[in-house]
Write a structure and sequence with these properties.
single chain, 421 residues, alpha+beta, 12 helices, 21 strands, 28% strand, RNA-binding
Length: 421
RNA sequence: CGGGGUGUGGCGCAGUUGGCUAGCGCGCCGCGUUUGGGACGCGGAGGCCGAAGGUUCGAGUCCUUUCACCCCGACCA
């Protein structure tokens, strides 16, 4: 994409009404725009990052047999009444509204009940199980207080997956498969090393649920980590978990973290509460075992900004960066323009995503923007580099530059990871 | 929802004890000079000061109400 075709622009000043690093940088760089407290628009650059994250999640969910769909945002109260969760005293984050005929409806903060209800139209027999569905959906939650930029909004994108099973054993086996899939997701997103499967409060059916917690100063959770045994426990269940797991609390490290995912075993609770059953081999009516699996897509984006940004701006992991290369053209001499246009075309034709800065701006401004935007590679084409028939490549995270031909750049970037020099 | 703070062009800010056509920087428009780490000169456009009410000869400055935003707390993916 050409810079002049992008309507957003960067700002020299930091928004005054944000304190979180992620919101400051994402707004300053033009990735997002704030509508109101806890509600943000995702602009073209932000959308590209979001879609990259979603694609990684999508691939891994598909790999464990998930079927993608999309549920509605408007929901019927009756479904939630069956599990008592329509009650504002039980769930205090509902956005509720009315149809013109005064029928009350809810705006989706979760899809557990609607998913169960929808699935019963297709799952009547043990032959229909297991069944696994997932979606990327905008959840609306009437939080008392929004904070931490896009890490805790009133409107956010979440991947939620649900698996339905004939038995506890079948559910457990699949549940563990999803945990492994989640590990791959965070690994691919670039936060694998700092993300831990964590014991957390579990509800009625199991003692614990599992959260995926990423070490992050801006996070809201406290993690107790036993590095040797690779055990992580959410502070909220610390005493219980320590007893259960037989670890010594004193050997655990206390760390701030952000919850980037959660897997939860409902057992037969939902099925029984909603009176949704399947027919077993002997014709008997049996309850369905349900588990749910969430990943906060927009939150992950915020966490990644928080973790990797430096004093110059955002630093995107390559896997989710909106573009691979920031191509800066310095100067407007005819031969430089031609060479830069040509470089843009050849890189793009090679399948490399390039943000081409062909603005009539000074070098310093372009370099500053390249840093702020956090594109993994910066490629400079100027009279100086052109004199040698080359261009200058630099990683966002390094200061070393290297002169290469476009062919060499194409090879290097296409192959990926290798070192520059 | 409790406590604290802030609302002045697109962004960041200044506006003394109430006083004249409401300023500054960035950004924006025009012309010219510039071009390897956010250039410079000249000339422009753009705000009725969050909103409503009140006090006053006079309100961005004072009073009342209200809305929004931020932070801390409680709650939460």
């Amino acid at each position: 994409m050409k810079m002049t075709q992008l309507f957003t622009k960067t700002s020299k000043t930091v928004p005054a009404d944000e304190t979180s690093k992620n919101a400051k940088l994402l707004i300053q760089a033009g990735y997002i725009h704030k509508e109101m407290a806890g509600v943000y628009d995702y602009l073209p650059l932000g959308l590209r990052v979001l879609e990259n994250i979603k694609q990684i999640v999508r691939e891994e969910m598909n790999a464990v047999g998930g079927r993608e769909l999309i549920m509605s945002n408007l929901q019927r109260p009756e479904l939630w009444m069956e599990t008592t969760r329509w009650d504002d005293k039980v769930v205090d984050i509902w956005f509720k509204t009315k149809l013109q005929d005064q029928t009350e409806i809810g705006l989706a903060w979760s899809h557990e009940e609607p998913i169960m209800d929808m699935m019963q139209h297709f799952v009547q027999s043990y032959k229909d199980l297991p069944a696994v569905v997932y979606q990327f959906q905008t959840k609306l939650r009437n939080e008392l207080r929004a904070k931490s930029g896009i890490m805790r909004g009133r409107e956010f994108v979440m991947k939620d997956m649900y698996s339905l099973h004939v038995s506890a054993e079948d559910l457990d086996t699949y549940y563990n498969k999803v945990i492994e899939a989640y590990k791959r997701v965070y690994e691919r997103l670039g936060i694998g090393k700092d993300t831990y499967v964590t014991f957390a409060s579990g509800g009625a059916f199991t003692k614990f649920s599992h959260e995926f917690q990423t070490i992050c100063d801006a996070g809201e959770d406290i993690l107790y980590l036993h590095r040797e045994k690779n055990i992580a426990v959410n502070e909220e269940v610390l005493d219980e978990a320590v007893k259960e797991l037989g670890v010594n609390k004193d050997e655990m490290e206390k760390i701030k973290s952000a919850e980037v995912g959660n897997v939860f075993n409902f057992g037969t609770d939902k099925s029984n509460a909603m009176k949704i059953y399947f027919t077993g081999k002997n014709g008997e009516q049996l309850p369905i075992y349900l588990a749910s699996y969430g990943i906060g897509v927009t939150r992950v984006m915020g966490v990644i900004v928080e973790k990797f940004a430096d004093d110059k701006g955002i630093v995107w992991p390559e896997a989710i960066a909106p573009f691979k290369i920031y191509l800066a053209r310095l100067g407007d001499e005819a031969d430089v323009v031609k060479a830069a246009d040509d470089a843009y075309k050849r890189l793009t034709d090679a399948g490399i995503e390039v943000l081409y800065d062909e603005r009539d701006a000074r070098p310093g401004e372009k370099f500053a923007d390249a840093d702020l935007l956090g594109i993994p590679y910066r490629l400079v084409l100027s009279a100086k580099t052109l004199a040698e028939g080359k261009c200058e490549l630099k990683r966002r995270t390094e200061t070393d530059t290297v002169l290469l031909t476009i062919d060499e750049v194409t090879k290097k970037i296409a192959v990926g990871k290798g070192t520059l020099v």
